[in-house]
Amino acid sequence: MNEEDGRTRGRVVLGGSTGFIGQDLQRRWRAAGREVVTVSRHGADLTWDDQAGIDAAVDGASLVVGLAGKSVNCRYTAANRAEILRSREQTTAALRIAVRNAVTPPPLWINSSTATIYRHAEDRPQTESTGELGTGFSVEVAKAWERELFAGDLPRTRRVALRTAIVLGDGGVLGTLRRLARCGLGGTQHDGPWPIGRARRAAGTAHYFRACGGFQRFSWVHLDDLAGIIAFLEEHPELEGPVNAVAPQASDNRTLMATIRRALGMRVGLPSARWMLELGAVALRTETELILKSRWVAPEKLLDAGYAFRHPALDEAVRASFALAPAP
């Protein structure tokens, strides 16, 4: 972490501190000498049912960051859908109540959102000013998450919804893809026809066949840049509302998987057809939408404000995530 990521800043309240991103952020802030108060269901300074404790932590804080929410890496059963939505709405509401109650409210509240809020895009990148919101369960969750963030009047606190793409680092999604590649299964993941039942249509959890040949777009951001973007937002009070936290060069699934294989020295990776992915998703208790939806998102606000990405190229970002030397 460089000096600018935590320079002379006061207390941070971090909601959702036990996940891949939360653990990395608190390590960086504490290494920079910054006080961090964590909030989570377990393993944190405070729990989400301790509203008084959250209020006290937020009062006088310099920054509030909300990351909490049940992982979407699960089957979209009725129970899981309800928990995915509830966990985001209730934790965000708890932070909003604390900001509203504060005698000295934080100047900035950054809350996690998702680049999945945009439609399946194969034609052009989705920006904050021209992007089109999508439909379906995942999109409705993202909309509800942002509504909770921006609800009510908080005149002394700037609010940012961080529409984050897949985060690359030593863990997370890239850790799973690395394991697949090492097993020889790191080939292109192909969309295709698949029967969709009435219940999934009604729930908005159906993924419809669109992108061919593994050319579904893949927007991403490196963990270093996510930390850098948060520091940049603290320094730039003109930035508020939705902000796309994505690298400027979107890739696609075919290129992503080839990049991972090349970084690991794996010459062969078996491709996966839609039917294989669907069966695998059932076994792994996840959903194919996570890899088959075409997410093509651009960081318009960050680039216009002058943010310089530390990892703008996918090949270098993957190698950095795997702690490998740059390719010759």
Features:
328 residues; alpha/beta; Rossmann fold; 6-stranded parallel beta sheet; two-stranded parallel ribbon; 39% helix; globular; disordered N terminus
In words, what does this structure look like?
The chain is an alpha/beta fold and 328 residues long. It has a single domain (3-321), classed as Rossmann fold, CATH 3.40.50.720. The protein has 12 helices and 10 strands. The strands form 3 sheets. It has a 6-stranded parallel beta sheet with strand order 2-1-3-4-5-9, sandwiched between helices. The chain has a two-stranded parallel sheet with strand order 6-8. Helix 2 packs across helix 3 and helix 3 (78-101) packs parallel to helix 4. The protein starts with 11 loop residues before the first strand and ends in a 7-residue tail after the last helix.
Shape: globular
The name CATH uses for the topology is Rossmann fold
Order of strands in the sheet with the most strands? 2-1-3-4-5-9
- What is the helix fraction of residues, given as a range? 25-40%
Compute the number of strand runs. 10
